[in-house]
Design goal:
By secondary structure, the protein is α/β, with parallel strands linked by helices. It has a single domain, classed as 3-Layer(aba) Sandwich (Rossmann fold). 50% of the residues lie in helices and 13% in strands. It has 9 helices and 6 strands. The longest helix has 28 residues, at 88-115.
């Protein structure tokens, strides 16, 4: 774990952003923060939920055609992913017109709820935090990285085809920029105990 942009003082009940490489184990890091008492906003879960809303389904269908819906009329995220991660313009259309406005409201709601709670911190597990411009709400940002062989293994376990990991990364902000803008880097190259240790060190420094 590397602290690269240290803050001047300990924050009182901070909002912490979590970003990193695709398939680097961000959910594992989020779980470690949760064990210490942090509330966790899961952007992927929020996106899954918004794709079940009738108005979102209809908007996605109008933009990308019936081929992105499954037999039950729900959004097929894998089919949608194949389209948008092969075309930067379509990815921008999806994110700026459908995803970011809705997840932005969800994040605002989550922060408002957090401010009335007793949780010591709120973790925003939001891979496109920088791309969406939501990083400004965070007191600290953590970047997660993992060895390429691990990431390829985890991508395969998700059912991704060969090259899908690189294809997705090529359409997002480059990893070097994200890493440089983060306040700390967690190297996910050991076991769960190692992740817990690194998160614990950040917890002590930031809270």
């Amino acid at each position: 774990m590397t602290i690269q942009n240290p803050k001047s003082k300990i924050q009182n009940r901070p909002v912490i952003g979590l970003v990193g490489q695709v398939c680097a184990g961000k959910s594992t890091v989020a779980a470690a923060f949760k064990k210490l008492g942090a509330e966790v906003y899961d952007a992927d879960l929020a996106v899954r939920e918004l794709y079940t809303r009738p108005e979102t389904i209809e908007q996605v269908r109008r933009m990308f055609g019936d081929g992105v819906l499954d037999k039950s009329g729900q959004v097929n995220r894998r089919a949608l992913g194949r389209i948008v991660f092969s075309d930067a313009a379509k990815l921008e259309q999806l994110t700026t017109q459908i995803v970011y406005p809705r997840t932005g409201e969800a994040i605002k709601s989550q922060i408002k709820q957090f401010r009335t709670s007793t949780a010591p911190a709120l973790l925003l597990d939001a891979p496109t935090l920088f791309e969406s411009g939501r990083d400004s709400v965070c007191a600290h940002i953590v970047y997660v990285t993992a060895p390429d062989e691990r990431r390829e293994k985890w991508a395969k376990e998700r059912g991704w085809e060969s090259g899908e990991l690189q294809r997705r990364e090529s359409k997002l902000m480059d990893d070097r920029t994200k890493r440089n803008r983060a306040d700390a880097v967690i190297e996910n190259k050991g076991g769960l105990d190692d992740v817990d240790r690194q998160v614990g060190e950040l917890w002590k420094q930031w809270l």
